Amino acid sequence: MATKFLDAAARAAFATAIEAIEGASAAEVVVAVRRRSAPYLHANVAIGVAAAAGGLAAMLFGAYEFSLTSILVDPFVVGGIAGALVELLPGVKRLLSPRRLRHAAVLRAARAAFVERGVHRTRDRTGVLVYIAWLEREVVLVADTGIERLLAGDAGVDATRTLTAAMADGGAAVARELGRLAPGLATGLPRRGDDVNELPDEVDSDLERGAR
Questions:
Q1: pLDDT range class, residue 3, cuts 50, 70, 90
Q2: What residue ranges define each of the domains in the chain, with the CATH number in brackets?
Q3: pTM of the predicted model, to two decimals?
């Protein structure tokens, strides 16, 4: 279940990680967890068409004789139900969506969330969005201009790879890996005496809205 990914322990772990980073550096961290980054309706269509075709074949070649009305209508009903049920099976959507397509969707959604959450509005442009895409099983970091140099190149690639790999062990594991970024950020962007908390620390999540 998606809701188990961000349970009470995970939320507490993220709070600890954000506190560690912001207490040691000038970085402002916002964590956004999204059930999915795109609807991936092609998966619904593919399963629906396959089910409809299978149902039609069974009616045409099976031993039982169906009425013409059933042959005309029933496959579409079966296909529609099968396509709708895909909404309850995120693993099917992930399986039927190429990795490149999923990655592009995650990047688009992460950049949109960066703006929507106002991560760009910090005084020294030191905001960083940690975007966690649950269906896609991917984490990306979107950094503002004042901090992007610390998360560019190999450092950023290694961080996102480690965070993404931790998703298999749940949200708390991702939070622990996020907290391990604190020393590096503190070295490259030390906290100033007049630093204030400019962005909300609470995890922004939509997993609670009926996600599996």
A1: confident
A2: 2-37+98-205 (3.10.310.50), 41-95 (no CATH)
A3: 0.91
